[in-house]
Amino acid sequence: MNKKRKTTKSSKPPRKSKGPATRSAKGLMSIATSARKDVKERVSALNEVSLAVGGDDENMLAALRILGDEDEPSEVRLAALRALQTASFSVVDFEPVRGPYMATLRKVAKDPDQELRESALGVLARLKDGFAQKKLLEGLHDPEKALLPPENALQLLSYDPHAEAYQAAREIVRRPPNDEAKREALRLLSADAKASPMFEKLLRDKSESPEIRQLSASALHSINPDKLQEHAREILLDTSEHDDIQATSLAALTNFGDVEAIANDKALMKRVDRLSSEAPAKVKHSARQFLSRYGQ
After folding, report:
1. Does this model's pTM top 0.85?
2. With left for phi above 0 and alpha for psi between -120 and 50, is residue 55 left, alpha or beta?
């Protein structure tokens, strides 16, 4: 009787794929820097490369050259910026090129391509860079010098709000170039305790949009919650008020009101009781939550 021969497994390890994940940073950068490669391949290489591995300054400098070169495709330059941002988290490895990196970002902040300008200014703003703040403020004061639309500039200034930024934001609120810029100016000012009177006025102004008034209520909650409670009560007693603003006021009092003071406020309790049965659905729901909170 013939015995079957036993098969043995090969002792050789399985072959590893030589796909993109195994390519070196040097190899990837040779693709990224090659003008003969198509844009998608160069972007893919930059998305994959780890510039800070081993502290390879040459690769980081090559990425900086791509970022700062206006003749390079914008998609490739943006990918280079993303790779450099990732590398910058490795503080020790990145330190030798930090100076050139900041200089390149300041150069790109004035680039003809708006997406690149905004990306560079965004990085600089998050780093609280004085150059970026100065340029953003200049653009708000003089639209001809603006590197970005005012609403975008205000968003970036909010990373490091200060007296000059607050003043520029107040000017935008007074003379808004568009609705979005006004909203961003108000969001920036929501960190300024001195802006309470402005937000109180906007909250009570029935000619303002519900969105602006709700934004003002939110800002008051942060910088002067007692004033918000006071105005919320008066808004609820006003039978001519907008439904959205009454709902906002009910939410403010329900979640943050003084339980004892409100429970003893007969005029307010009577008004909310009426809203709970006669108001439109969204106000009615908020009124019932209020009454549940205060034991009615």
Report:
1. no
2. left
